[in-house]
Amino acid sequence: MAATRPGSITSAKASGKPGRRQAYQPPHSRLAPLFFPESVAVIGAAREPGKVGHTVLDNIIQGGYQGRILPVNPKVDKLAGLRCYPSVVDAARDAGPVDLAVIVIPAPLVPGVMEQCGDAGVRAAIVVSAGFREAGREGLVLERELVEAARKHGIALLGPNCLGLITGENRLNATFARSMPLPGNVALMSQSGALCTSILDWSVRELIGFSRFVSFGNKADVDESDLLSDWRRDPRVGIVSAYLEQVADGQRFLREARLTTRRKPLIILKAGVTDAGARAASSHTGSLAGSEQAYRAAVEQTNSLPAATMEDFFDLISITSQTPLPGKGGVAVLTNAGGPGILTADACEKQNLRLASFSSRTVSRMARAVPGAGNLYNPVDILGDAGNSRYLDALAILAADRDVASIIVILTPQAVTDIKGTAAAIVERAAATRKPVVGCFLGEEEVEAGIEVLRRGGIPNFRFPERAVAALAKVHRYAERRREEKLFEPVSFRVRKEQVATALDFSRGGGYLHIGGFQALGVLGSYGLRVPRGRLAKSPAEAAAAAAAIGFPVVLKVVSPNIMHKSDISGIRVGVEDEEAARDAFEDIQAAVRDNMPDALFLGVAVQQQIDDAREVIIGVARDPQFGPLLMFGLGGIYVEVLKDVSFRIAPISRADARQMMHEVKSYPLLTGSRGEQPADTGAIVDALLRCSQLVTDFPDILEMDLNPLLVRPQGQGAYVADARMVITP
Amino acid sequence: MAATRPGSITSAKASGKPGRRQAYQPPHSRLAPLFFPESVAVIGAAREPGKVGHTVLDNIIQGGYQGRILPVNPKVDKLAGLRCYPSVVDAARDAGPVDLAVIVIPAPLVPGVMEQCGDAGVRAAIVVSAGFREAGREGLVLERELVEAARKHGIALLGPNCLGLITGENRLNATFARSMPLPGNVALMSQSGALCTSILDWSVRELIGFSRFVSFGNKADVDESDLLSDWRRDPRVGIVSAYLEQVADGQRFLREARLTTRRKPLIILKAGVTDAGARAASSHTGSLAGSEQAYRAAVEQTNSLPAATMEDFFDLISITSQTPLPGKGGVAVLTNAGGPGILTADACEKQNLRLASFSSRTVSRMARAVPGAGNLYNPVDILGDAGNSRYLDALAILAADRDVASIIVILTPQAVTDIKGTAAAIVERAAATRKPVVGCFLGEEEVEAGIEVLRRGGIPNFRFPERAVAALAKVHRYAERRREEKLFEPVSFRVRKEQVATALDFSRGGGYLHIGGFQALGVLGSYGLRVPRGRLAKSPAEAAAAAAAIGFPVVLKVVSPNIMHKSDISGIRVGVEDEEAARDAFEDIQAAVRDNMPDALFLGVAVQQQIDDAREVIIGVARDPQFGPLLMFGLGGIYVEVLKDVSFRIAPISRADARQMMHEVKSYPLLTGSRGEQPADTGAIVDALLRCSQLVTDFPDILEMDLNPLLVRPQGQGAYVADARMVITP
Predict the structure, then answer these.
(1) Is the peptide bond before B465 cis (omega within 30 degrees of 0)?
(2) Strands A305-306 and A266-270
(3) Closest to A431 measured CA to CA, from A405, A481, A395
(4) β-sheet bridge partners, residue A409
(5) Interface of A with B in 471-510 (CB under 8 A)
(6) Which CATH superfamily does the domain covering B28-179 fall into?
(7) Minimal CA–CA distance to B480: which of B254, B695, B349, B656?
(8) What does the pLDDT look like over A27-39, one tens digit per residue?
(9) Closest Cβ opposite residue A198 in set B190, B442, B642
(10) A177-323 with A325-459: one CATH topology?
(11) Could you say which DSSP state residue B478 is in?
């Protein structure tokens, strides 16, 4: 039986954890002095128990930190048997270089002390004190002063308003938390100190260990992207978990998260996701794109594991820190009772976790191991009278099946069940396979001793089958997408960027921040999007000539900076078949503008090649305040407007992202010819999405954009942007 | 502080639980001898510990049952100090009437023993033994014999293959469970014995008490509807919880469940819900209607509380058994930490649980109770340094706000938090209000003592905020719908039922089980659905005459029992404006049939009044094997076929059900004129749904039915069934 401590580095290696083994390199980032200081000053260290300055010093000492500890407090000479210095400058002069300062003094004094830290050569600081941005206007001013001082001196600053941090291998507990986490392979960052304390409490009970534990509070300097950048290369970090309320720099976060998940699982619990808020926006995309959509897209694109709830967060940490990643295949369910087996199978279907299909060899072996009334197929029911040996045999058979990638073992406490013995059997079998095995012991007091055996053996246990399935489903999906990693590389086309820069500048120079018509189509054309042939006509005669040059049939549309919804005022004519009709159409449109919007500036009529046999889709872009350019896709008309049947990704996107965007909308079958029509050119849609992604990534000054409609012709015949609008920055 | 035991009858009354107080009446149903026997025979009682026959006898004795206990075993004279009888007949003769027999002998002997029970005058029996239907063909034969014997003698039979039952007030534990539940107000029925043992274990730890605890195994006789019928009138049952795999008689279950939820909460955990299975069905409705849809409709229509997972099941039992029902209003969240507060607010938004809007008085009172950096609005943040008294004050302020219908109190263990004291404060405050108050103490070891205080005070605690919200959201919804109860009465129209009976008989007599065209429209017309004027024409001349009589424009459609999809073979002409055109259209259709389906039987052409300005919707019916007639609604064409945008209810439905069916489809805004059109006559849709519901309830021999399309004219102008098909039983 494997006796290693779950969550410890040892067991992490033994069980083939994610985060492949690599040569250990001393940390080299600017965060190194935060996590691995050789000396720590505690500024505001206090004698009185109950004071935060006391708790922090006490935690550093009791935690077993081996570096130099330098209490700073002008009012005392000695603290906890250590010499106490009047200031950090004194400490550095008398005791040698100070790597890290932990600051626990009233907020108004902190910026000044940060200056002193700079003078003393301090390299990193943790500001535990509250009373900054979170406390209102004055606090915000203080926080700015604080950051300025830290930046001036090149000090990496954690906080303010945080619980502090804990590093596993050097036993540095620079927090005022009530307890110390166990050693292990989990790294945690949290924007809420209170959540940290709950997680600590939970982890001690569940024997989950941490190598890095960071509360970053207001994250005035060090933020989630800094930590990801550090931790993804840190061999002591097996999995990264993050509780976030906002993301400081969405685009950087996306890059760092994407790089992180290639090596190790990244679990995110995000608060405030539903607080989308209705924004006033003139485009379709703007009105449909909320912060929740952006966050969901970010999780999807970075292959992060999203925790839907706090419980889910714990479950995901528990499973990823203790079990290897599943390979290709489905899940096997092993149970000693029918009801929970069915509930588990139901949950698998709901969570899209495929039940493994057993080979005939597995079934025949199982037939010899299980009595007649049992079920040999998935979920395998080994009956209420199953003892350890039947569990052991069935587990061995399942682990040998090629389609079994993971195993859920359910136990209900029945008359003859040997609960501890079965737990020991599961631990033994799990150690003999590289497939994840999780327990689901149902009950409380009766099964507690068994769960304790699982815990000590590093087998995650879930109190309810649906939770086991929910966690495992996310892990399966993560592992699968990690195997397909290269599909998610952003792509880049050769484009005429200069032309676009000129066009945008020209428009801005003229005071026009809304770009439409031929100008918008021109910008898109520069990025390789196909647009119908077209020309501006200022008179009936010009319209006829343009139509003849373009080739019939043509479409005529009013051109006016004041008219947004052209069809509402009868500003569009389709199916214009000859020169005479083109002339008439021009006159009709001009008359319609005069009648319906007499104050509109009439610039003429656009004469355009008519694109037939096409289905209408919309591509849009809005700017998310955190993540930047948010790309939207949907089918035209009611699908977007009434059914809100749209999908989102953050630019830049990969080809796989673009394909997924298309597949995600419920109306997708309308593009594939499901009703007997010719399939639409979905390749052209993917291409258009990618080119739009590149355009708005290259030009952050495009705030909003709608390609509406993009006319998609049948397979192989391309897609044309029939109309487009953009909003640019002033 | 309220010191009553949570879940006990006492606390149920004290805290104003659901299930109003009523005069206690002795149970009068045929189930009375099961729950309240004056004497119990244990047939198969055994001396050897570990044997089920031993455990059952021991549980009855140890449980404290006060009636006569009569062990039956021909091999021994005495058992556990009691006289043992060779047979139940002997026991009845020597010891007086036997009310209940608990049978724990090998399955093949059970039918014979049941006969003996009948001879001995036994009134109810629990068959614990396994080896019946669940064990295959031979077991099924045994089970039939068993049921036959029980029915012959009028014995109420529980099981076979079950754990047994427990009744609270007479302390009857007729099970082989490992432990006895606490006394309380919860009634549980479970189709899985293993689940019962897990629930028992959990409930003992959580101090949740039971008045009725029933494992009904194969439910060969007594089933969920019998128990509902009994329990809804039983004053000792405050809430009903049920784990079900199948429902024996869906229509009866619906009636009983509807009656139950008017008085007390009914919580259902259903296994096998996703096992819909793709059925071969000729109608749209048939192909879209699965058992999951039927189950969801059943839950919705009966106002049951659906448990999504086992955990959810426990949570719902915990909250409904301990807290009063919320009145009108939203939830207030009280927290000592920001992060968990945001997570809770997020969860409320996701679960559609409205956050209460505080009155200005509440906000100003809160401002006096909470320091400056706190948040006075919902969620209220009373900060990390909050002690008991701040919790107490804030709770009192929230409880006094009119819009606060329920309160979630979050506690994170921070440096100065008095965990037990705060828990005591919550218990005290909760006792002073009739609004539900639930705790959410985050953490494990640190908060355990506080959670224990809550438990003993009858306050449900949830380990995670999202769980508290999920449970509370369902309870709010239940209470709200219970207030609106009368909206959910089925309605009934005056119809011409005889005409339909004749038409169906006529069709069946002719061997036609598929009914379409005028015949189907005739059936619907008899139930008051509007159909376009129409006539069958057998020649071009007849078509012209029919069209003239009906009035132009008309539609012509092929009539043939072999042609299901008329438009596929060009069998429809619309917009026929005069007699000449009608004649031509007839000939065209006849030619199209000859060309495309030469073997089809051509019966003529239906000439129909053309309904203009209409939107197409579909109403359908399929038969669910458990629940019966499943009614479907959706918009026509792609909305049903591609987007599967449909809703379901089980007939008979109420007016409110019909309205909800319409509102549930995503494309509903297309009916309300959201895009500038005239709103459709949604009242006519409701009317049509109700009449269809009545039709298929009155005629169970209609297996499937599609009204496709129902043409809905603008507001006030009605809806017309343009075409319909039915499948009837042979």
Answers:
(1) no
(2) parallel
(3) A395
(4) A334, A439
(5) none
(6) NAD(P)-binding Rossmann-like Domain (3.40.50.720)
(7) B656
(8) 567 899 999 999 9
(9) B442
(10) yes
(11) H
Per CATH, the number for A29-163+170-176 is 3.40.50.720
Answer for the pair A685, A662: CB distance below 8 angstroms, yes or no.
Answer: yes
The pair of three-digit structure tokens given for residue A145, joined into one six-digit string: 């002063």
DSSP run (H or E) holding B244: strand B239-244
Q: Are B179 and B166 in contact (CB under 8 A)?
A: no
Beta-strand relationship, A172-175 and A164-167: antiparallel
Contacts of A245 in chain B (CB under 8 A): 339, 342
Burial state string for A446-463 with b = 16 or more CB within 10 A and e = fewer than 16: bbeebbebbbbbbbbbbb
Tokens 């244990």 -> residue: B42
* pLDDT tier for residue A275 given thresholds of 50, 70 and 90: very low
Instruction: Measure in Å the smallest separation between the Cα of A260 and chain B Cα atoms.
Output: 25
Per-residue pLDDT band for B706 (boundaries 50, 70, 90) equals very high
Alpha-carbon distance of A77 to A72, in angstroms, equals 9
CA A147 – CA A21 distance, rounded (Å)? 37
Q: Which CATH superfamily is domain B324-483 in?
A: Succinyl-CoA synthetase domains (3.40.50.261)
Query: Over the stretch A410-434, which tens digit does the pLDDT of each residue have?
Result: 999 887 789 999 999 999 999 999 9
Structure confidence at residue A4 as a pLDDT band (50, 70, 90)? very low
Q: Residue A296 is encoded by which pair of tokens?
A: 């969901």
In chain B, what residues touch A465 (CB-CB under 8 Å)?
Answer: 309-310
State how far the Cα of A630 lies from the Cα of B254, in Å rounded to an integer.
Answer: 47
- Write out residues 232-261 of A within 8 Å (CB-CB) of B: 243, 245
| Interface predicted TM-score (ipTM) | 0.86
Q: Does position A1 have pLDDT exceeding 70, yes or no?
A: no
Q: What is the CATH topology of the domain spanning A325-459?
A: Rossmann fold (3.40.50)
List Cα–Cα distances, A688 to A525, A661, A693, A719, in angstroms: 11, 12, 8, 8
Of the candidates A465, A456, A457, the residue with the CA atom closest to the CA atom of residue A432: A457
In DSSP notation, A150-181 reads: HHHTT-EEE-SS--EEEETTTTEEEE--SS-P
Domain ranges of chain B: 28-179, 324-483, 533-610
**What is the rounded average pLDDT of the residues A310-325?**
96
Residue B481 makes CB contacts below 8 A (sequence gap 6+) with B303, B488
Residue B6 has a pLDDT of 35
Please give the backbone phi and psi of residue B217, each rounded to the nearest 5 degrees, phi first. Answer: 50, -125
Query: Chain B interface, mutation test: which of A207, A346, A469, A644, most B Cβ atoms within 10 Å?
Result: A346
Q: Is the dihedral of CA B368, B370, B374, B375 positive or negative?
A: negative
What sign does the dihedral B364-B370-B374-B379 (CA atoms) show?
Answer: negative
Size of interface A-B (CB pairs under 8 A): 208
| CATH of the structural domain B533-610, one choice from 1.10.760.10, 3.30.1490.20, 3.40.50.300, 2.70.70.10 | 3.30.1490.20
Residue A668 identity: Y
User: How many whole angstroms separate alpha carbon B313 and alpha carbon B242?
Assistant: 9
Over its C-alpha atoms, chain A yields an Rg (Å, rounded) of: 31
**Cα-based distances in Å from A90 to A95, A96, A97, B722:** 8, 10, 11, 93
Could you say which DSSP state residue A279 is in?
Answer: P
Give the nearest partner residue to A343 out of B271, B340, B446, using CB atoms. Answer: B271
H or E stretch covering A574: strand A572-576
Average pLDDT for residues A188-215, to the nearest whole number?
Answer: 92
Q: What angle do CA A563, A564, A566 make, to 5 degrees?
A: 75
Cα–Cα distance, B271 to B308 (Å, whole number):
10
| Contact between B718 and B684 (Cβ < 8 Å) | yes
Dump pLDDT digits (tens) for B471-492: 999 999 999 999 987 777 778 9
